[in-house]
Known about the structure:
The protein has nine helices and eight strands. By secondary structure, it is α+β, with helices and mostly antiparallel strands. Among the domains are: about 10-50, no CATH class; about 150-285, no CATH class. The strands form three sheets. It has a four-stranded mixed sheet. A hairpin with a 2-residue loop joins strand 3 (about 210-215) and strand 4. The longest helix is centred in the first third of the chain and has 19 residues, at about 10-25.
Amino acid sequence: MPKHRIPTWALAWLTGLAVVAVIFLANTGAVDRLMDAVGLTRVLYPNKSQLASNVIRQDSPASPLSAQINLEQAPPGPALPLAAQIPADPSVRASEPSTILPNAAVPSSQVPALSVSPVSSPTSSPALTSAPPDPGVSGTGASAPSPTSAQEPLFFLKMGPDGRLEPTPFVRQVVAGNTPLTAALQALLMGPTLFEKSAGAISLIPEGTRLLSVRVENGTAFLSFSDEFAHNVLGLEGLAGQLKEVVWTATQFPSVQRVQILINGQYSSAHSVDGLSMALPLDRSNLR
């Protein structure tokens, strides 16, 4: 029988396949990466990636990151008491629970003697003595009475029908001082209010005049003013007007019939009105 010889090309193919198989088995990892890079793995083994991930998730231990995520997603538990939330001091060791033995008698020699010192009674504080009452304060504890107010007529000048300035009363609520006369004169020196000015009130008393003292004797009111009262920029006519305001306001009180003008407590003979000197007492009849 004739012998069948294997063709040379077949031997070459078999040899090549054997070499490729050996290389494939020796470099399985590199071949897998090459197949993943060109996409043959997804074509030939579509379920390989899902199977590998399942195997890794089941076999590998949980990573710290996943454990942290699970802890963060865990439902909140019951709130711990405040004592449990405070971190324990590492320098203090927790004492182990002691075991209580029933009917165990402790020898008296092992029990340390407790020294008991007598407790001294608290010293009594000295008796509080009440302060003597203030003579200026009433027994009810109220302070000095607050100043009261009263309605007093103040005589300012007002233009009359004949064009002359005549003293006219304007009732105002004033704060009562030592006497109603003093309160009225101090309010007069403040000048008319806006409401009184709108009603025609005019004052010719020099601005800045101060009332220094008030004294009433035998129907005469001795009124001492500062230097500004003796200097009126309108001359004698202004001086006559300011004297009318003061004399009419003072003589409205029953105890005052006339007014003696003083400058800084002194009589002034340098000023006179229509022959009347300020050194003499003035009444309403002298200034009409």
